[in-house]
Amino acid sequence: MNAPLALSLGDPAGIGPEITAKAWRALKDSGPVFVAIGDQDLLAAQGIATRAVASLAEGPAIFAQALPVLHRPVSAPVEPGRPSPAHAPAIIGWIETAVALALKGEASAVVTAPIAKAPLYEAGFRFPGHTEFLADLTAAQPMPVDKGLTERGPVMMLASGDLRTVLVTIHEPYARAPALLSVERIVHTALVAAEALRRDFGVERPRLAVAGLNPHAGESGQIGREEVEVIGPAVVALRERGVDAVGPRPADTLFHPEARRAYDVAVCMYHDQALIPVKMLDFWGGVNVTLGLPIVRVSPDHGTGYDVAGKGVARPDSLIAAIRTAAAIAERRLRSGSEAVARKE
Fold first, then answer.
1. What are the boundaries of each domain within the chain?
2. Strand order in 110-112's β-sheet?
């Protein structure tokens, strides 16, 4: 049986406390079990029963009656909708605690409620986002080879329904993205994605569609050379390594229903190329999965919602989907590890 999930509360001035409380209401009778890491008072103010715990192991016994909380209070007042750099130490500490528990095996996965980068940057945060921070926190931990995972990320995947996308460049200004593309970077992203699809998502023979960067995938070099000089050679290199990859494909024809049936993941060159189609198709049901980490990490695919924070109208759908996705991946990794042990015996 897997350990509970660890859920870091995100920005306390955003919708994190509200959607966490609503997710608990939706899941308290069925699970998956999660323990919130954050300020218990903020969660209790959402009108739910909460109970402080000293460890995640206490969570399953009380989850049906109260949301278990590993209480780590904020050190400055919280006003919904008004982010503050004064909250940065708590936000960062909650993430660090969740990751540390996952690395020790006390949490089966990490789910992160949304954060905003600007108030963290004001406080000296040096990472572009959650994804890069998590990679740094887990860098010293070897990959779980016993669970069939060797390729290290981080690679950001957005997933909803029949569409999965992964990003070659993540939180980079669009003007910088083309210069950051390389054959090696595209191949590495695709290999991480293919391995994760097999082990974490149960796709036995992953099919990858690699998007172009330029309009019409460059029109054979007439509208940009990246497809000819970088992306195309990367696809050839992937095929030589036994990966079922096609491309570069024009991004504007890659995401309609018929096209989606032909692949298991789209390898995208920059942030919005990957995120816009997922959010357009299913804004409330999409999730963000960080691939290539020694731990499982999933989050909602939306932001902090400062404009609706404190109004009681935030939807928890994406957070609930993230919790369920994290639990499913953790279960597959547990099963994979058990099977590896059985084979050795």
1. 1-143+296-345, 155-291
2. 50-52, 67-71, 34-38, 5-8, 110-112, 297-300, 287-291, 155-160, 163-167, 265-268, 207-211, 244-249
Beta pairing class for 163-167 and 155-160: antiparallel
Q: How far is CA 251 from CA 234, 242, 272, in A?
A: 17, 24, 11
| pLDDT value, residue 341 | 35
Q: For the segment 92-147, what is each residue's pLDDT rounded down to a tens digit?
A: 999 999 999 999 999 999 999 999 999 999 999 999 888 899 999 999 999 888 77
CATH class of this structure's domain 155-291? alpha beta
> Is there a common fold for 1-143+296-345 and 155-291?
yes
Euclidean distance between CA atoms 161 and 126, whole angstroms: 34
Q: Which residues pair with 66 in a beta bridge?
A: none
Q: What is the pLDDT of residues 227-276, one digit of tens each?
A: 999 999 999 999 999 999 999 999 999 999 999 999 999 999 999 999 99
Write out the CATH class of domain 1-143+296-345: alpha beta
The encoded tokens of residue 250 equal: 């024009």
CB atoms within 10 A of CB 158: 24
